[in-house]
């Protein structure tokens, strides 16, 4: 298992659950956890689900990606409530997460990864 | 001055206003958002009601924290973490002071930090900020603040995706924040 | 129904099927069609599925969004084979599609939409 | 010179090479991609085989088009539309000429247009291009071309997400393209 993990936050449960299937192809040895939708599985985000995704992740240092603006605020609240070291990126959601997965799998360092993520920042 | 008791009364009044204006809030969220603000806030105040009902003789800090957690866990949209952060900050500060003006100041700072928005971005901040700035909160201050969001161009939240097209609509979170402060005005002893 | 439609192409069937649930909130009057995964519903893209998503869309002028590079090539092949007018955007997938949905719903013109999409170009 | 007959024989030989090297191709795709190139190509040549089996006394254009459609509809990865476009372009050009060198030229142009890549980007183009440039295709030309991709930094396709980390690995699509051209070399009468 790689030292860095990834957490994925989407407004849509299916998107959050589906995306790891793409990332796992590029990063089979990465712990990937996801949080999608509200507590009732409606469209939205849930701080509790995000916190659970952070805690369940097998890595202690995590890279977090989210889809649209409001997920970010719940992510930040969850990060505040967790002891884990979570880095939050304002990149294109799927493209940023895929890039991170490919690089973590190749044992790139966090600073190398962040360098490659920089041009994907759009939020 | 906020107390455990009048804060709970404040929340009862807020609940009733949201219940009565749920559809209007969602309608406001339709042209410049995703049309769920009324339902989001209704779930939120329901969560607050349930949380408060479980407390036994709580102190003010516990009341404020319970409100925050109810909003954070039930709203499901951007307004959840924002209102939640506002009440979390009030809870923290309530050890030092129960003065409503000072508590609103820290709440506003929390909203700004959480959402990265500022005055003029067409968000709830455009109601919270004038309310915080005025020493005496009046319905006039609240109404003017709400109305001021109409001509603003949204720079944060979902409405910002619309760019110029966001102009000409009231911000739904500004309107729901207006209900919060009207409810406060109507709660004896809080000011 | 709006004059402009949206088509969504993802490597993951769940992502393609889930994303319209987010977009429909911002654009309830937009025809949204999607193509996800290979013909066997594995991770990948299918020219036939994309062509079907183009043809099934009720609008005659479409904005197309895709997740990662290889979807683009199947999209272009499908566009070549269709008579519809399809515009392909190299933007962040979810964020670009959400922006387009919000603006189409607000009756923005194609050039206004493209102006707002420009800063989301990352591919 | 390509004919309907020798092109089908070429595809039989290509099929066998892919079948034999399926795992190797997927292994090459693992460090710098998603590990599916062997399976993708296997599905592709299977699709080609099935498509060709259904033809009754076809002309060259039909054979080339059938190969293209088999690859496009079965591969499922980036190499599908790329190889597919290559054979579609050959099919179109086959009305004018059956000369293999001229057909490879238009195929290469199609691959470049489809994927937006060029020489040196660490893709299948780095095999197609040297083969197109050399008047006589030899195993040496093919092998050198494949080997040249090892030290390249990927600028297109999935390997490009790795940036500098893509250096030091052969490109899987370059290797499968090498099998295509070796199969061509081994098919009598094509050159
Ligand atoms: N970054 C932000 N800062 C401050 N307020 C914001 C921000 N984003 C959104 N809002 C407020 O939240 C309201 C929308 O809330 P809601 O509809 O419940 O959430 P969502 O947009 O996730 O559906 C907006 O009208 C605005 O007042
Ligand atoms: N834009 C491109 N232009 C040319 N060739 C490309 C391009 N993108 C990918 N390739 C080729 O396709 C190969 C990968 O094919 P494959 O693994 O089947 O697809 P995928 O990357 O979608 O899984 C790469 O090794 C490379 O040779
Ligand atoms: Mg909303
Ligand atoms: Mg919402
Ligand atoms: Mg691959
Ligand atoms: Mg693949």
UniProtKB/TrEMBL annotation, chains A, C:
Subunit structure: Homodimer. The dihydroxyacetone kinase complex is composed of a homodimer of DhaM, a homodimer of DhaK and the subunit DhaL.
Top-level division of the source organism's lineage: Bacteria
NCBIfam families: dha_pts
Residue intervals of the PTS EIIA type-4 domain: 3-123
Purpose of the protein: Component of the dihydroxyacetone kinase complex, which is responsible for the phosphoenolpyruvate (PEP)-dependent phosphorylation of dihydroxyacetone. DhaM serves as the phosphoryl donor. Is phosphorylated by phosphoenolpyruvate in an EI- and HPr-dependent reaction, and a phosphorelay system on histidine residues finally leads to phosphoryl transfer to DhaL and dihydroxyacetone.
Name this polypeptide is given: phosphoenolpyruvate--glycerone phosphotransferase
Keyword terms: Transferase
Transit peptide listed as a keyword: no
Enzyme Commission numbers on file: 2.7.1.121
Reaction(s) the record says it catalyses: dihydroxyacetone + phosphoenolpyruvate = dihydroxyacetone phosphate + pyruvate
Single GO MF descriptor: phosphoenolpyruvate-glycerone phosphotransferase activity
Family matches, as Gene3D superfamilies: Phosphotransferase system, mannose-type IIA component (3.40.50.510)
Pfam families in the cross-refs: EIIA-man (PF03610)
InterPro entries named among the record's database cross-references: DhaM, DhaM_N, PTS_EIIA_man-typ, PTS_EIIA_man-typ_sf
GO biological process annotation, one example: glycerol catabolic process
GO cellular component: membrane
From TrEMBL, chains B, D:
Top-level taxon of origin: Bacteria
Functional pathway: Polyol metabolism; glycerol degradation
Alphabetical list of InterPro entries matching this protein: DhaK_L_YcgS, DhaL_dom, DhaL_dom_sf, Dihydroxyacetone_Kinase
Name of the protein in question: phosphoenolpyruvate--glycerone phosphotransferase
Catalytic activity, reaction form: dihydroxyacetone + phosphoenolpyruvate = dihydroxyacetone phosphate + pyruvate
Domain DhaL positions: 5-186
Family matches, as NCBIfam families: dha_L_ycgS
Source organism: Liquorilactobacillus aquaticus DSM 21051
Pfam families: Dak2
Function as written in the Swiss-Prot or TrEMBL entry: ADP-binding subunit of the dihydroxyacetone kinase, which is responsible for the phosphoenolpyruvate (PEP)-dependent phosphorylation of dihydroxyacetone. DhaL-ADP is converted to DhaL-ATP via a phosphoryl group transfer from DhaM and transmits it to dihydroxyacetone binds to DhaK.
PROSITE patterns for the chain: DHAL (PS51480)
Catalytic activity, EC: 2.7.1.121
Gene Ontology molecular function: glycerone kinase activity; phosphoenolpyruvate-glycerone phosphotransferase activity
Subunit comment: Homodimer. The dihydroxyacetone kinase complex is composed of a homodimer of DhaM, a homodimer of DhaK and the subunit DhaL.
A GO CC term assigned to this protein in UniProt: cytosol
UniProt keywords, alphabetically: Glycerol metabolism, Kinase, Transferase
Enzyme's top EC category: transferase
Single GO BP term: glycerol catabolic process
């Amino acid at each position: 298992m790689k030292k860095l993990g990834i957490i994925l936050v989407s407004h849509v449960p299916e998107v959050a659950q589906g995306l790891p299937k793409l990332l796992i192809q590029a990063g089979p040895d990465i712990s990937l956890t996801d949080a999608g939708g509200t507590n009732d599985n409606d469209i939205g985000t849930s701080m509790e689900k995000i916190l659970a995704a952070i805690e369940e992740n097998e890595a202690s240092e995590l890279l977090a990606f989210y889809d649209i603006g409001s997920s970010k605020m719940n992510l930040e609240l969850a990060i505040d409530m967790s002891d884990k070291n979570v880095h939050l990126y304002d990149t294109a959601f799927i493209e940023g997460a895929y890039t991170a997965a490919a690089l973590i799998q190749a044992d790139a360092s966090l600073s190398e990864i962040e360098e490659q993520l920089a041009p994907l920042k759009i939020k | 001055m906020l107390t455990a008791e009048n804060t709970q009364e404040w929340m009862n009044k807020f609940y009733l206003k949201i219940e009565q204006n749920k559809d209007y809030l969602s309608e406001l969220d339709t042209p410049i958002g995703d049309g769920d603000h009324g339902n989001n806030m209704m779930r939120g105040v329901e969560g607050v009601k349930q949380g408060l009902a479980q407390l036994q003789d709580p102190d003010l800090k516990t009341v404020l924290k319970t409100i925050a957690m109810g909003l954070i866990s039930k709203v499901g949209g951007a307004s959840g973490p924002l209102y939640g952060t506002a009440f979390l900050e009030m809870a923290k500060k309530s050890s030092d002071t129960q003065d409503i003006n000072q508590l609103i100041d820290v709440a506003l700072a929390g909203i700004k930090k959480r959402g990265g928005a500022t005055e003029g971005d067409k968000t709830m901040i455009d109601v919270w900020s004038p309310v915080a700035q005025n020493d005496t909160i009046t319905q006039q201050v609240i109404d003017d603040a709400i109305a001021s969001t109409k001509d603003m161009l949204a720079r944060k939240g979902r409405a910002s995706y619309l760019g110029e097209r966001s102009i000409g609509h009231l911000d739904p979170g500004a309107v729901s924040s207006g209900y919060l402060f009207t409810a406060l005005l109507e709660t004896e002893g809080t000011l």
